[in-house]
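Hello,

Our lab assistant flagged a job as stuck in the queue for most of the afternoon. It eventually completed. Since we weren't sure the result was trustworthy after the delay, we are filing this so someone can double-check. Below is the sequence as submitted and the structure that was eventually returned. Let us know if re-running is recommended.
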Amino acid sequence: MRAVGIPLFALVCGLTNVAHAGGNKVVVKTETYAVAGRSGGEIMKAMQRGGPKQGLQARAMAATRYDVRWNLDWAKGTNTCRLKSASAVLTITYRFPRLASAVSPDLQARWTKFMAGVRTHEETHGRIAKEMVNAAQASLAGIANDNDPGCARSQNDVRRRVKAVYTEYEARQRQFDAKEHQYHGNVDGLVAQLTGN
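-- returned structure --
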């Protein structure tokens, strides 16, 4: 599961776990919520009760949220406007379940395998988000307009190009989820592995 926030012109401060890619900054945060149970089925029920919200009432096992803030540097002439540089801060927040009580060695082994699969799934959402930001940044090259003293036309060009890239990559996120969550897909396999079914 993933959620996205994509304002165009703000810059995020107070960064942790920062990586730089192509002039962009990537901030990765991890949150957890507690689950407990004596069986895989009980742990699944705990995730269904306390997992990240998905829609109005449903809950997910884990989630990836991301937020993008853009820092744009403009060169303004008398009647011209040119985008000198664009960089982004992408903040990715993963939310995972965490066992809050001791379990049997067998259940611990199944939990470890289950969580490895869950992390791979969510980190794929994160990778797609990174690709989205890099593609959006690349799309901004060469933005310049004459008769644009206040940079309004150029800012609209930025919004239009970034929105087009975001739309493309959000479609990729949905396609990935559709494949992973299909009947007998990867997510069903992870649940079956945990519950022993």
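-- support follow-up --
The delay was a queue issue, not a problem with the job. The result is valid. The chain has one domain: 2-195. Helices lie at 40-50, 105-139, 152-180, 186-195.
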